[in-house]
Amino acid sequence: MTAPVAEIAVSLDCPAWVEALPDIEARVQSLAILALSGSPEDVPEGPLELSVVLADDKTVQALNRDWRGKDAPTNVLSFAALDDEDAPLVEGAPLLLGDVILAWETVSAEAEASGRPLADHFSHLVIHGVLHLLGFDHLDEEEAAEMEGLETRLLATLGISDPYQDEDDQQ
């Protein structure tokens, strides 16, 4: 399987990310490519572009409030450019997939509460966010099963256990 050609911009808006995961920029790059490679039939042809913003809860809470009407932080937000029918398409330019934004405090607290390594939880959420940019969702059981199954398969290639199985075991 050939990896898609993608420009992945990583913004480090919260220094705690680098302190906890010193290789985070390279990690984001490889995780995004893995997510894009996992379901080739869902990836548009040609060069792609996306951004991953490593932010804090305050930033994510403001975005969640302004764009989703939910005044609380969340672990990851995805803003898919492909959802915007008015998004400009420039011939020869990379296709903009959108933005994935992660919240440091929420992600790190979730990892600690679940007993999962931060790197594993982070990997899951980057893959999850990028899959949202490709149109995957979990609004109903069938969509959720497809998305979660793909996430689980991709994480397994990294030696990371099924995060959804772990949730079921804790209930």
Automatic annotation (TrEMBL):
This is Endoribonuclease YbeY. Its main location: cytoplasm. Single strand-specific metallo-endoribonuclease involved in late-stage 70S ribosome quality control and in maturation of the 3' terminus of the 16S rRNA. It comes from Magnetospirillum molischianum DSM 120. One of its GO terms (biological process) is rRNA processing. Binds 1 zinc ion. Keywords: Cytoplasm, Endonuclease, Hydrolase, Metal-binding, Nuclease, Ribosome biogenesis, rRNA processing, Zinc. It is an enzyme of class 3 (hydrolase). NCBIfam families: rRNA maturation RNase YbeY. Its EC number is 3.1.-.-. Its cofactor is Zn(2+). Zn(2+) binds at H128, H132, H138. It holds the Pfam family YbeY. One of its GO terms (cellular component) is cytoplasm. Gene3D superfamilies: Metalloproteases ('zincins'), catalytic domain (3.40.390.30). SUPFAM superfamilies: Metalloproteases ('zincins'), catalytic domain (SSF55486). Belongs to the endoribonuclease YbeY family. The keyword Lipid metabolism does not apply. The gene is ybeY. It is found in: Cytoplasm. One of its GO terms (molecular function) is RNA endonuclease activity.
